[in-house]
Design brief:
The protein has 478 residues and is α/β, with parallel strands linked by helices. It has two domains: 148 residues, Cobalamin-binding domain (Rossmann fold), CATH 3.40.50.280; 287 residues, tm_1862 like domain (pyruvate-formate lyase- activating enzyme), CATH 3.80.30.20. The protein is 37% helix and 15% strand. The protein is built from 18 helices and 16 strands. The strands form three sheets. The protein has an eight-stranded mixed β-sheet with strand order 7-6-5-4-3-1-2-8, sandwiched between helices. It has a six-stranded parallel β-sheet with strand order 9-12-13-14-15-16. 45% of the residues are buried.
Length: 478
């Protein structure tokens, strides 16, 4: 092949409507890889757009030497279409991300190369090997086909221990169709940032451990502060992408104290577990350092479901966390998951009752989804309970498996009804009267989106109703 000089990085947006349709944030992998290759003097560009916008931007791709695509399960279908298109133009394609890391055989039907796991070491080595016409066998984490069309999967990539060695993502390389990275309710640009990788927990429905390992790895405090200082608190807010921002409490406190000492004055949000409520000093520091929203995986209030998913938290801990966080005035975004074997229509309704009674600001009621790389996926496949492999619907909004104690239709309906109840005009008014303006504004958006989703997905819903074993529930109405 020709010498690689120009590399285009693609992360296609989901073609489906979902709860974050308005607040789409790019994942950091593609931008970091683009930055690494730019620093190695390659001509690079990154795109986070819908497929039709990508085709338009790259109508003339004659000067592109390599296309690098990052895909999650919900976007892998459109990613494969993009890969097929660019390969038809004679351009080599490499694809990575969580989905293909667990299914390289499928990915290699559409791409020339597949990178499994973290790509910061693998991609530069792959490009060097292609440019120097040397063996691909030494590239860690690479899956590819040899001259005989046999699939070769190289030795796994070792996790990067020194996260400070990874450059700050250069967002100037990213094309967003003229939009900011992500615009929130307060009209500030949302900057995604990650300070750690890995997770020691083993929740049955999560693929983070399989993708990034059970051991937490951290960036140093000075390294994180240096990245934050690049931005302007008057124009930008920060979303910390960490799967558990407070996993190392001592280290988190040091970071927060430094943010306070330097008077960085950013508002920010992140994901945490309920166990943060056990440390009032931690919550105080988070509030003082500018924390605006906490995304918390409550998942369920049914002890049997919590045990089944290996969540390692109790309903009492959930209640305590809500109480303690509310004292600090921090917005609580609770995430619940519907569809565990322990779930029934009654327990799902109880979760909605709980969310309303406990005055959680905003919520997501998500449908349990069998993502590749999870214990739950393996179980559903073994028990022959997967409905299909239409990957673009694996987005936590579509039922993709046969539940145990209800029909697939009842589970789908439970999610819609949950959002309908929680984001009813009555509940929105109550939040506004309590002075929870942010909760009201997000809720108003969710109220409208819930109705739009039903109309948008009418074809899917009609299919779900016809699956054998479903009850004759009344049709969903927007």
């Amino acid at each position: 092949m020709n010498h690689i000089k120009r590399i285009v990085f693609l992360e296609p947006k989901s073609e489906k409507m979902h709860i974050f349709s308005r607040f789409d944030l790019p994942r950091l992998g593609n931008i970091i890889l683009a930055t690494i290759m730019k620093n190695k003097n390659y001509d690079v560009k990154a795109y986070f757009l819908k497929a039709n916008e990508i085709y338009s931007r790259l109508a003339d791709c004659s000067t592109v030497d390599l296309i690098a695509i990052s895909a999650i399960t919900a976007t892998v279908t459109v990613s494969y279409k993009l890969a097929d298109y660019f390969r038809s133009k004679g351009i080599k394609v490499v694809i990575g991300g969580p989905h293909v890391s667990f299914n390289p055989e499928e990915a290699l039907e559409h791409a020339d190369f597949c990178i499994l796991g973290e790509g910061e070491k693998s991609l530069p080595m792959l490009v060097d090997a292609l440019n120097n016409n040397t063996s691909l066998i030494e590239v860690p984490g690479l899956a590819w086909k040899d001259d005989y069309e046999e699939i070769i999967i190289n030795e796994k990539t070792k996790p990067i221990d020194n996260l400070d060695s990874i450059p700050y993502p250069d967002f100037t390389l990213l094309e967003l169709n003229g939009k900011a990275v992500g615009v929130g309710i307060r009209k500030k640009e949302i900057v995604p940032m990650q300070t750690s990788r890995g997770c020691p927990f083993d929740c049955t429905f999560c693929s983070v451990t399989s993708m990034f390992g059970r051991r937490f790895r951290y960036r140093s405090i000075p390294n994180v502060i240096g990245e934050i200082k690049q931005f302007n608190p008057k124009k930008q807010a920060i979303f910390f992408y960490d799967d558990n921002f407070t996993s190392n409490v001592k280290r988190t406190k040091r970071l927060l104290r430094e943010m306070i000492r330097l008077e960085l004055n950013f508002i920010w949000s992140t994901q945490v577990r309920v166990d943060i409520a056990k440390d009032p000093e931690l919550l105080d520091l988070m509030s003082k350092a500018g924390c605006q929203i906490l995304y918390i995986g409550f998942e369920s209030i049914d002890p049997k479901a919590l045990k089944e998913m290996k969540k390692r938290q109790s309903v009492e801990e959930i209640k305590w966390a809500i109480k303690e966080i509310r004292k600090r005035g921090i917005h609580i975004h609770g995430m619940f998951v519907f569809g565990f074997d322990a779930d029934t229509p009654q327990t799902l309704r109880a979760s909605v009752d709980f969310a309303i009674k406990e005055k959680i600001d905003t919520v997501q009621f998500l449908i349990l989804t069998p993502f590749l790389g999870t214990e739950f996926y393996a179980k559903m496949e073994e028990e022959n309970r997967l409905i299909d492999y239409q990957w673009d619907e694996y987005d936590a909004h579509h039922v993709k498996f046969l539940p145990k104690n209800m029909s697939a239709w009842e589970l789908q309906q439970a999610q819609f009804e949950a959002h309908k109840r929680f984001y009813s005009i009555k509940q929105l008014t109550s939040r506004l009267l309590r002075g929870r303006k942010l909760a009201f504004l997000i809720g108003l958006y969710a109220h409208r989106l819930n109705k739009k989703w039903i109309r948008w997905e009418s074809k899917f819903l009609n299919v779900i109703k016809t699956i054998e074993g479903l009850t004759k529930s009344s049709p969903m109405k927007a």
